[in-house]
Automatic annotation (TrEMBL):
It comes from Digitaria exilis. The keyword Nucleus applies. The lineage of its organism: Eukaryota, Viridiplantae, Streptophyta, Embryophyta, Tracheophyta. It comes from the Eukaryota. Its main location: nucleus. SUPFAM superfamilies: Homeodomain-like (SSF46689). This is Uncharacterized protein. One of its GO terms (cellular component) is nucleus. It is found in: Nucleus. Pfam families: Myb_DNA-binding. Residues 9-61, 62-116 form the HTH myb-type domain.
Amino acid sequence: MGRSPCCDENGLKKGPWTPEEDQKLMEYIQKHGHGSWRALPKLAGLNRCGKSCRLRWTNYLRPDIKRGKFTQEEEQTILRFHSVLGNKWSAIAKHLPGRTDNEIKNFWNTHLKKKLIQMGFDPMTHRPRTDFFSALPQLIALANLRQLVEQRPWDDHAARLKVEAVQAAKLQCLQNLIQSAASIATSPSSSSINTIPDLEQIGLLSPPQMSSLSSLPSPSFLESISGQDIVAGQLPDIQIPSSFFEQPTCNDANQNLDFTPKSSVEGENGTPKTLLLSENSLPPLTDFPISNLGDACSASSCDGSGIQFPSWPELFDEQFLSEFV
DNA sequence: AAGAATCCCAACCGCAAGTTG
DNA sequence: GCAACTTGCGGTTGGGATTCT
């Protein structure tokens, strides 16, 4: 399987295409079809390799290419197919008329992937993130919150919110632990799609904290479709959490959420600002002001420099654990 | 206003499957 | 069956555009 030597040839132009080159390529293909891409450049009078011409044609010049922003429907289609097909961009592109694999790939890498990460979902599995380090922002915020609580007198309302916040954060952490354990316990041959126990069913978690999870495809469903050919129009309806399409940007979502102990938590008149954390607004795993930390800190790359981690006993005291066992 | 940082996407690279002689 | 060649694909990058400080 030798590699094509065409791109190694010297003297062939690289880089952005000029309008003149585009014109030559378009005219030639419209007249003769592309035929052999290797032979095309010479025949069309272009100082490019065939590969470059093919790419330019398929990704940009083809007349049926749809340009402009992706619609919400297209976005949802990409998410659905990606959850099943993974990074098979050309396969996904077949279900989006007028969109190229390159365009979809770019859109995924620049928008959708980030969006999923910000919401606390693993972009590859489309499941809530299970790695410990993805929960670090929450752990750190939790520790900070606790520190803050212990240092400062609170009124009743704030104290109640504190308890809620701590419980919610603990729930998230516990959930991650359970999921990790479950993933390990389940089949070693599992595909990229993880299986997790239905936490609601086993009574560990209850809505609304788990509302985003409950709309995800069930493990049995995912198992049932894995290995099957996906036929256009027959893809089962994988539910992306409805909040995905309503979710404001990370920064927007965080406008009212700041758990870091800093002077700005105190209002102008010296009274503490209200921490807006309701039962229904538990932030996604990575939706904290220190966002990106979860993403940047993979288990292999995070050295934790400059960050003081709370110890586990601090996070999960006996009383808390006994509540859920 | 200007420099820095970040975003975005067209295009490139290299691998592997498919085709041909 | 084998080697040479072609095509398609997915990952990555360079640099212009945009936003932030």
